[in-house]
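Before relying on records like the one below, remember that each one covers exactly one chain. Contacts with other chains, cofactors or solvent are not represented anywhere in the record.
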Amino acid sequence: MSGRDRISGLPESLLTHILSHLPTKQSVQTSVLSKRWENVYLSVPGLDLDCSVLPNYDADEVLLSFLTFIDKLLEFSPELSLFKVKIKCRNTMIDGFTDRIGTMIDRGTQHLDVVSSTDYYEDTLSDLLPVVDFMPMNLLTSKTLVYLKLSSSGLMDPGFVSMPCLRFLHLEEVKWLVHLEKLVSGCPVLEELTLVRDLDDEYSRRHEEFTAMRVRSRSLKKFRVPLKHRWDCSSEVRCTLEIDAPGLEHMSLGEDQFDSVVVKKLSCLLEVELDIKFVVNFGEFFDPSDASKRTEIRGFLNGISSVRHMIISAKTVKALDLYSKEGMIPKFNNLSRLEAVFHGKLLQFMPALLECCPNLKHLVLKVLHSEEMEEGLELTDVPRCVSSTLECVEIQEQLELEEGKMKATSYFLGNSAILKKLILSPTAYDPRYVVESEIVDKVNKLTKRSTGCEIIIRAMEEVVII
């Protein structure tokens, strides 16, 4: 029994299911195992190819072989549906490739993930223009697609958009010749949308009507603008993002890819994560005296004011601080959990921010560069949530037990009437410089307004509860 090939004895349906979890290149390699395996890979209901690693020598011959392989796969079982198709062609233009994509869509593809070429050519004016793989016209009328992810691809307007089964849509640096609003409106059951703007989109530069992206959907539950361009994020093309999704529950804006963000009232919002400063260019913050910018930010904050859980980065905290100097931050009456990152110099703004969260119960506070805190820092204002609703505060800060570094800890212990837990997380103390007994002694000396409050120190080898 030990020398018997038991795998080859499995039904072909099970073998093809197993191979469907492998990249196509590895799946094809099984054809040399035996006569039994010679054509099994041709019945796999999926395709996973990375054309960006094709060898450079004899490029035309290699690309022709690639298309020939796809044709062979499509012709071997004309009735076979390629349910999952994943193809990466970055930096590799393949004539006829999108025609094959169109055939796969007609064959009932449910999951499509395409990374298109990002090549450029020089026009007569010595400008570099992108060479775009425009997706086939039948893509936006697919009756079977459930998941669609496009990166660096082009989308044309087919005149009519209808994707009745599409639930997940990921669009990254797409070249638009169809309005996003039209695309999304043709997806009646869309639940998740991820959008990464092409900051150097020559098509938007030449077609001004594509400098506004509108997301209008009654079915959408989750919307993300993930971190993509990092610190060097900038753009010469101004673009506005408009969100009208009354059923939206989760929203994450992880980067400033849009010059302005407009939202309708998002009354179902459960969680929002913000890492934006409302200005695209790196290092720049808006001018608080700019009335139009203040109006834009006020409208955005009002639109998300019903959120229950909010996560904000240090740069968003700074933007809110700038806004508060000229305008009033709206109340977040439903907010029960807030996670916020403060630079030490901005801790003075913390009470004003908490004043806008009258029913807050759980606060996670991370303090960066606490050594930069001003000597005269005094946290004297006590907003309603601190005195009457806060039940749990977690402080993440690199502390060395100096008086100024204990301000946040003593502030909440001394003013929170119903506080149940105050947690000093693993970053709160540096064990190289602080003796365990010193931590306990220092915290024990702090005044506690809530006599039943537990102080949990997680920085030590064993969790200590005081």
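The CA atoms of residues 230 and 255 lie 8 Å apart.
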